[in-house]
Amino acid sequence: MDFLSIFANPYLWASTIAMATPLALPAIGGTFSERSGVVNISMEGIMLISAFSSAAFAGYFHNAWLGLLMGVLSGMLISAIFAWAAARMYANQVVLGMAFNIFASGITAYLFNAIYGPTGTPSDTPKIPDINIPIIDSIPFIGKILSGQNAIVYIMFILIILAQWFLFKTTLGLRIRAVGENPEAAETAGINVVRMKYIGVILGGAFSALGGAYLAIGVLNSFSPEMSSGRGYIALAAMIFGKWTPVGSFLAAILFGFATALSYSLQNFAISKNLIMMLPYIVTILALVGIGGKSVAPAADGVPYRPKK
Asked: What is the mean pLDDT of the chain?
């Protein structure tokens, strides 16, 4: 196979979208959280807990959509605890995020071994279906990229538009951003700062959880310990690279997704496999050192705020 022919293969671009989805969703979620002034690096842990919950419920009730719902709810519950610790108890948000990630890694591995043992999740665990879109499906090249993706991918496209509109066009979105920039001024204007932080963090948890559920019952129909494989951290980089906007986070995730998809395509060439698999992480580092370093975070991001009232 010629090297350049890789880029003419529609499956590379279809894989790019599929690989970008579990990065874009938590990246957008992180945007909500940090726009409210709460640094949330627990997306990795939220993804793991959601992935386990969605696979467990989908398998037990033989209903993938119920599994998806329970996965998202579990992520929102964990995020509510995170928001309480950050906004009410004024905990160090970075330390808190790391603690959540370690807890999620341990509890999901324990529950997985306790419930399923060496056999793993049942092979008949249902998954969210892939969808072929009429008309688009028949378009040469484009149809193979945009049609046949998992349903969560199409849900993601809708959510990107809604998230961008919500944050920048609605009163509630404006209030969340105001709290992330200047909580004291926001409170003076009558905005409940703590409530806005709760909303931002919980919304962020819902998006991250959707990304975790996608891994467990969208791409696969199973759960395995540590299956998020650091995607929550890459999503953090995508959020910074995307300048804390939903659309920017998605575009950054597409870049990382492309690097991942390209690394799989290059495995047929005489290039060291270890070197190829490093490609997404090299892109992440370059993004953070380069353009990401010029991004400006919300002014009060990560700064604990004690309401005056």
From this structure: 92
- Cβ partners under 8 Å of residue 178, min gap 6: 185, 186, 189, 191, 196
The pLDDT value recorded for residue 309 is: 63
Q: What pLDDT does residue 263 have?
A: 85
Q: Is the predicted pLDDT of residue 293 greater than 60, yes or no?
A: no
Distance CA 298, CA 201 (A): 15
pLDDT band at 6; cut points 50, 70, 90: confident
| Whole-number Å distance between alpha carbons of 272 and 156 | 34
pLDDT in tens, 60-105: 999 999 999 999 999 999 999 999 999 999 999 999 999 999 999 9
Q: H/E/C letters for each residue in the chain?
A: CCCHHHHHCHHHHHHHHHHHHHHHHHHHHHHHHHHCCCCCCCHHHHHHHHHHHHHHHHHHHCCHHHHHHHHHHHHHHHHHHHHHHHHHCCCCHHHHHHHHHHHHHHHHHHHHHHHCHHHCCCCCCCCCCEECCCCHHHCCCHHHHHCCEEHHHHHHHHHHHHHHHHHHHCHHHHHHHHHHHCHHHHHHCCCCHHHHHHHHHHHHHHHHHHHHHHHHHHHCCCCCCCCCCCHHHHHHHHHHHCCCCHHHHHHHHHHHHHHHHHHHHHHHCCCCHHHHHCHHHHHHHHHHHCHHHHCCCCCCCCCCCCCCC
